[in-house]
Amino acid sequence: MAAKRGVYGLQRALSGLRVSRPAYAAPRYTSAPLRNCRTPVVYRSVRHASSESEKQPEQLGKTRLYDLHAAHGAKFVPFGGYQMPVQYSDLNIGESHAWTREKASLFDVGHMVQHEFSGPGAQQFLETITPSSLSSLTEYNSTLSALLLPETGGIVDDTIITRLPEKFYVVTNAGCREKDLAYLKKELDAFKEANPDKAVEWKVLDDQGLIALQGPLSAEILSRVLDEEGAKEIESLYFGQSTHVTIKDTDAEVLVSRGGYTGEDGFEISIPAYATEAITTFLLDSAKDELRLAGLGARDTLRLEAGMCLYGHDLDETTTPVEAALSWIIGKDRRAKGGFHGDSVILQQLKKKSEGGGVSRRRVGFVVEGSPAREGAQILNQEGEEIGKITSGCPSPTLKKNIAMGYIKDGMHKSGTEVQVVVRGKKRKAVVTKMPFVPAKYFKPTAKS
């Protein structure tokens, strides 16, 4: 069998691919030349201004795919401290949305923050700051979770936690970068002081690439760039599972996780820094008639149709997982034993109202007549009393209806409840609706008959 080529060889084989690194905001490392072997990941921290609107373009970070986006006619906007593509010249947002639902799209999510936690105290530390049941999470399996405030159980950020051999892989939101890093440092320092015999090592993989391949053709497209063994591994993955595979004709091992933010079948792929641009271009070139780049515009409409939260809009530090309709992320053993931040508040909220439990508001979905309701729109009952606020809203390209999500007074949260939403000073009829608005198409095991 022929020896595998390095990524540098792949780069030469891809016509028109730039091999130079894009410019980064305040780089704090010296890059080694590409070699025919895996390059160690470099860890670094980037400080961002408190407000994106205050930043000049040159102050914003750039992911490793910035030059590739520009070459494909991307329109950039500030997001999460980075210059990120909102759409491309070949498709408008609605067209890109439809393309993802019908074929497949590739999203750059390299602005997200990737972490690794390892050591004998890693599981206990993560179970202290999240409500997840990590003791029952097997290797190469993931769970949605949330970083919580110690006293109130408010959500500092939502996150995905994956158990890998001898470590946990954690992804957090770009817009919460500074806050999350400060939070994790403070919490880790406190944990180490209280548990000096349980070491925890924390690494931030700030140079690691991350892309999301989403859509019904995703598995077929990804299999094409893998060898036969890798393709079989991908076929056997279910939603929430991960594996390490090597891209065909390269030495680049990537972490592939089946899941995503669109409601479609798909994968998130964590790529070594040196190989991110080459592998992304390889994927695009392998499926020119089926795969397109997609930006933040389509990502937002897709995630809202899928009933997914956007931190800072649908989730924040004043909101608990129970209020946010995320009670399912709280493990059964955690409900019984507690031991996580905010457990006294959250476990009380999980109780029946007759036992003093419950919440005053709940996150729900809406279908709105007339104009679309945007964030901040008031929700009124039939008597005109305010009973909630919209947190996200847009016209649904798939349903051709105006959809939204928000928080509504407990008792008014049942599907079919008719309310009013104030849009541009006018009251619009709205109906509480189950989410997701568009049925999810995650690849899961079929139920046994």
TrEMBL record:
Chain positions recorded as substrate binding sites: 268
Keyword annotations from UniProtKB, A to Z: Aminotransferase, Mitochondrion, Transferase, Transit peptide
Entries under NCBIfam families matching the protein: gcvT (TIGR00528), PRK00389.1 (NF001567)
Species of provenance: Sporormia fimetaria CBS 119925
Molecular function per GO: aminomethyltransferase activity; transaminase activity
Localization per record: Mitochondrion
Enzyme's top EC category: transferase
Protein name: Aminomethyltransferase
Known EC number: 2.1.2.10
One of the GO biological process terms: glycine catabolic process
Any one Gene Ontology cellular component term annotated for this protein: mitochondrion
Main location: mitochondrion
